[in-house]
Amino acid sequence: MKADKQIFFSGQWFRFILLALCMVGLLSCMKEGSIFRGEAEAPPEPDNPDRVVGLCQPGVTRGLTLRPVREPEFLPTSDFFFPLSNTEGLENTIRIDLASQGLKSWNELQGPVQRSLEYALNMKAGEAALVQPGMEITWAQVVRSLEEFIELLPHLDEYPELLANRFVWYGMKQKPLMTGYYTPEIEASLTRQPGYEFPIYGVPNDLQFGKVRGKHRFYRIEHGRVTPYYERGDVDVGGVLAGRGLEIAWAKDPIDVFYMQVEGCGRLRLPDGTTRNVLYGAKNGYGFRSLGRILHSKGLLPKGKLSKEHVRNYFSKNPKQMFHMMAENRSYVFFRLEDSPPEGTIGKPLTPMVSLATDRKLLPLGSLLAFEAEIPEAENGRPVGKRRVAGIGLAQDTGTAIRGTRLDYYIGEGNEVEPVANNIMTEATVYLLISKEALING
Question: What range does the domain containing 59 cover?
Fold first, then answer.
């Protein structure tokens, strides 16, 4: 215990000293004027002509073709987003702990950020990615921010302060509620056989998506008329999709299928021990209702005992109610069988402990974020306390229940991460990172 305290306090002193040194660097830059006006460059070190010294520099090496740092004359703000000062941005940069995300180097973010960039490049550059009263961020600005971050990645292990130097940190006046999700593993078979009796459906060919009365909806055509698509009760109780060849696999447990739909993807453990992934294909367009809350609303489960385990326990004792209770959640998700890893809404693989599901009206899909939150620590399949995560996130997914100031944090694949993902329920501190150059040039 005493040794732990000594380690803790030495770590705190290290952070204090690092912050003090960075503050000295900032004050030096303020005095010279270069960090705020991009007017001056310090000469390279005599013994290393390629190395550039300090925060005041436009780049890190002569080979790095970064523009000089310039401060935007105008910073867009809104009732929800506010820009941090350079000093505040630096303080938050110092708080980033990539190890808390399971990362050893900033360079490990190259792939995930590249995937966000590929998505953003497909959007129309001049169109708004984020619209708030008094504040608009275009897709071109999102793209430039991601590009500049990628340019900085090889240097951030040594110079993390560059993130504060070259980006505006936008804070949120209302802290989002963070929950967690993961890719569950369930027992299933690709063919129907004894013990595997519950269908996992692919996307029906009569499910359509488009504008209906001015709004985008999922629907089907029946007798020449547009009608809402089948509800969960129609599928699970009424069997309207049975016999149409839509089954891509068969599960042992229908509760597994229900919760796999909640997560939006899954990993199938087949009878021979191999695995296959099922990824999100489409949904029927109805709003989501928690199965635990459905049982609570009927007086069948007490408040505080609404988890998957409590739901399973209830249905093990009351199996005849199962399908009718699940049908009260009218939402239904269809899957596609793939060999590729789980994907987000951007159509790219998710990265554990980095990818976030957000409301695209709140944060642009693909955008670069910094965040801090407390999440559960798990041992032997059970949460055993809390730990702090402070790192870089990417808005790469969405969710039916993720609306407004909500975030869903992707924890990873397999049931071993379930105790963490299912027990995240906390306020998070989140920053939207926009390159200063992007704000200047649009």
Answer: 1-71
